[in-house]
Amino acid sequence: MITCIIIEDQAPAQRVLKKYILDVGTIELKAVFSNAIEALAYLKLNSVDMMFLDIHLPKISGIDFLKTITNPPAVIFTTAFSEYAVQGFELNVIDYLVKPFSFERFVQAINKVQPKETVQDTSANLEFFVKSGHEYIKVKSEEVIYIQSDMDYTEIHQKDKKLLTPETLSFWENKLRANDFIRVHKSYLINTACIEKIAGNQVYLLGDIQVPIGRAYKDAFLEKYVKG
Asked: What are phi and psi of 152, to 5 degrees?
C-alpha cells in the first residue's frame, strides 16, 4: 500500500484530500501538516512513498521546501495557481493538481506513484485503478495476463475481463516493470508468471492465449527468461 502525508494549510483542501484518499482505498495517510517545517521534522524520522504538497504555505513555500530535501518521496503538487506548473515539473514532481480537482484527476495522478517496496521486491503485488465508464476498477497486477496497445488506448486483459485505459503501453511498462512484466512486442506487454510455453515467434499464456514476439524484443526476452 502507498503511504503518504498531506502538507496543506487550508482545512477545506485537507478534507478533500482525506476523502479522496479514503475513497481510493490503496493509500495510507500517515500524517497531515499545515506547514512545511513540521513536515520536514517528520520526514527526518519517517519514510513515506508520496506527499501531497501545497505551494502557498506559511513560513516557507512548497517549492522552496522541496528544494531543501535531498531524497524526497514522490510529490504531487496541489495548488490553486497553475502558473507554477513548469517550475514544479523541473523539480521532478509526479503531477500537478490545480484546485479544485476532481476525483478522476486525483486517481490519474496517484496511478503514477509506486510504493517503494514494490521497486525493491519484484514479487510484490501492485494494485491500481482503471477508469471504466463512470467507475474506477481496482486491478491487481498478478491478475493481469497481458496488456495490448490498440491505437489510442491500451487493453488490460485479465482471465475473465478486459479493461480499456487511455494510458500508453510504455506507461504500463514503467509502472509494472518491477512486477515481472516484460515487453515482447511493440504492442504487447505480458505477465511472465502467465507464460506456459514459447514456440517459434509466439509465446503462449494462460488460457492458450498466443502473443507474438517481435524481432526487436526476442533476443532480450529469450536471454532473460529462457537461457537464464
From this structure: -95, 5
Tens of pLDDT along 51-105? 999 998 988 988 889 888 878 889 999 988 777 666 656 778 888 899 999 999 9
CA distances from 95 to 45, 188, 202 (A): 25, 27, 38
Whole-angstrom Cα Rg for the chain: 20
From CA 214, how far away is CA 109, in angstroms rounded?
A: 32
The length of the chain in residues reads 228
Query: Domains in the chain, please, with CATH?
Result: 2-116 (3.40.50.2300), 142-225 (2.40.50.1020)
- Each residue's pLDDT tens digit, 119-158: 444 434 677 888 777 778 888 888 999 999 987 789 999 9
In angstroms, the CA 118 to CA 178 distance is 7
CB 127 within 8 A of CB 26: yes
DSSP 88-121: HHHTT-SEEEESS--HHHHHHHHTT---HHHHH-
